[in-house]
Write a structure and sequence with these properties.
mainly alpha; Tetracycline Repressor, domain 2; 9 helices
């Protein structure tokens, strides 16, 4: 049933666009009740986000052997999901709904963002184990440095995002994460310096 709901959502977005998408239309075409949809997705925006960007598990981590390589592989994988026409259409609507719906914010943080930040935690942990980083870095900050910049490039600045830009984003995120690890390591009692 999950696959049918998500496939139907994608079809309706392709046919008429996100603004015309409704839970009623998805339920009717998928042959399921609205209650079944709402048990899985708290809102139209969440359903559409799951269908267009998270219909599958996160890609497995590349394990390239370097922080930069791991971040580059990750940003390339996310770019494939985030740059689709459906995602570009949906992202502003989802951002708007997150701004006014605290329950959706919590669900979004507990599901999609938690999975993404777990990937960053693993990448940072591996870099610390390889001694590329002086110590751990908050996965939320690593997430912001890489995927926050990608989202901004795609959805706010409308930049043409190619592999050269993805490589630059990974390079900048690597430098930022490294600097944060060094800063936290050198701060007295392990606390970050206040600025």
């Amino acid at each position: 049933m999950d696959d049918k709901i998500l496939q139907t959502t994608r079809e309706l977005i392709d046919e008429a666009g996100y603004p015309a998408l409704t839970v009623d239309r998805v339920a009717a075409r998928a042959g399921v009740g609205k209650a079944a949809i709402y048990r899985r997705h708290a809102s139209k925006a969440e359903m559409a986000f799951a269908a267009t960007m998270y219909d599958r598990q996160l890609p497995p981590l590349a394990r390239t052997g370097s922080l930069h390589g791991d971040l580059l592989a990750l940003v390339r994988a996310f770019h494939v999901r985030m740059a689709t026409p459906e995602a570009r259409q949906l992202a502003p609507a989802l951002i708007g709904e997150l701004a006014v719906n605290p329950e959706l914010v919590k669900r979004f943080q507990d599901t999609f963002l938690a999975a993404e930040q777990a990937a960053f935690a693993d990448i940072v942990e591996q870099a610390v184990a390889r001694r590329e980083l002086a110590g751990p870095v908050d996965p939320a900050m690593a997430h912001l440095l890489l995927l926050g910049c990608l989202a901004s490039a795609l959805y706010i600045l409308n930049l043409p995002v190619d592999d050269a830009l993805l490589t630059d984003l990974a390079t900048a995120a690597t430098a930022g994460i490294t600097a944060l690890a060094d800063r936290h390591r050198s701060a007295p009692d392990g606390a970050a310096e206040q600025r």
